[in-house]
Amino acid sequence: MGSGGKKQNGLCKSVMQFLFSNVGICVIVVLYCVAGGFIFQHLEKNNEKEICYDTRDEYIPMENKTLDQMYNVIRESMGNSDLSVLMIELRTILETFRDNSIAIGYEGDICGDYGKEGGPIYKWSWFGATYFSVTVISTIGYGHIAPKTFWGRLVCIAYAVLGIPLMLLCLANIGDVLADVFRFIYSKICCCGCCRKKEKNKVVQIKPSAKEPEPGWKDDKPRPIPSGEYGSKVPPKINAPADETARPIKVPVDMKQFKTQQELAQRSKQVRGEPMLIDDDSDDEDDEFDEKKVTVPLTVTMLVIAGYIFGGAMLFGLWEGWDTLQSAYFCFITLSTIGFGDVTPGTDFENPMQNVQMILGSIYVLFGMAILSMCFTLMQDEIIAKCKWVGTKLGIIDEE
Fold first, then answer.
1. Which of 70, 229, 293, 375 sits at a 20 to 30 Å CA gap from 36?
2. Which Pfam families match (predicted)?
3. Where exactly are the structural domains of the chain?
């Protein structure tokens, strides 16, 4: 029992660590969107068919009434030669019919053929409901589809209350990770990382100094050995003869030590005036610290955003048949979470690739918001660094 309890505790601890990691939060967001697709499909799909029947029941009497009005106007004007009055009356009837049809919302579908081959396609399919879930938790909210049932709207509120903070947490974490990765790549590629390696092995030219005296054993000429420097000290003789005083003093010399000094002198002679390599054994922690200090220019981050928007514009232009400006407009409005809803993908329900396009569009939106979060983090670091630099130059901030 004890070992089983420890295993369960260890398993629970591992699961919790995974869920609160960056990968775990991303998995939770994906599963949350998938679950939202199933929930809203279950709540709204059947209601979509019921709405079709209700709007058709309102449309058919209005259509019959419009036909009767047109018939009466034409019959009454049979003996009238002025056709302009007839045209005005007919136009008025048709405009009223048009406005009422728009207000009802009936699209002329055969309601009994929903879900059948050749019949109308559900807007609240799993793909459409999943795409709606993404727009809810990302706060985009196109408005092209919206829940109509009581429970659908109530669940949408609860779904947004839980999903929006989760989405923001995921974007913040992923943005920081991507910012570190992008900063590392920028420091290695754009900041000439190889230059820092060259600085570790600096070439220093050692020039001979005129002020410093050369060692006494630089050349091979014999030099007198001062007494007292090597061997024992010899007391000077008093009243010694002149010829005896002029003789060199024989002092025992430690030849081993002298040989060592000669080797050092010879080595000094070889090294003097030649380039010297100084190896800077700096730790990797210093390099990591320097990489964290690197800031990415605003122009680079703006180019990343523009490139992602341009790539999405090309993609949606091929899918939806939009021009470049309309596609770029949609990408910007979407990634900035403005979401006007005037331009939305996936509205062509006759397209067999519509479901795949909606899933890929959801991935583009989620990843694009993470890219924007990364760019905002890099821009924030760059602006703070520039402000500190200006403050240091002005004397407002003390140099570290």
1. 375
2. Ion_trans_2 (PF07885)
3. 14-191+294-394, 213-267
Chain centroid to CA 131: 21
- Mention every residue, 6+ apart, whose C-beta is less than 8 A from residue 311: none
> Which pTM was predicted?
0.69
- Helix locations, the chain, DSSP H: 2-19, 22-76, 83-104, 126-137, 150-189, 193-200, 242-246, 255-271, 284-293, 298-320, 324-335, 354-394
CATH architecture of 14-191+294-394: Orthogonal Bundle (1.10)
Q: Are 143 and 341 in contact (CB under 8 A)?
A: yes
Q: How far apart are the first and last CA of the chain?
A: 58
Q: What are the beta bridge partners of residue 201?
A: 279
DSSP per residue over 181-217, as a string?
HHHHHHHHHTTTHHHHHHHHEEEEE-PPPSSSPPPTT
Q: Which of 317, 398, 373, 396 is nearest to 171 (CA)?
A: 373
Query: pLDDT per residue over 115-155, tens digit each?
Result: 788 788 888 999 999 999 999 999 998 888 899 999 999 99
Buried b (16+ CB within 10 A) or exposed e, 140-173: bbbebbebebeebeebbeebbeebeeebeebbeb
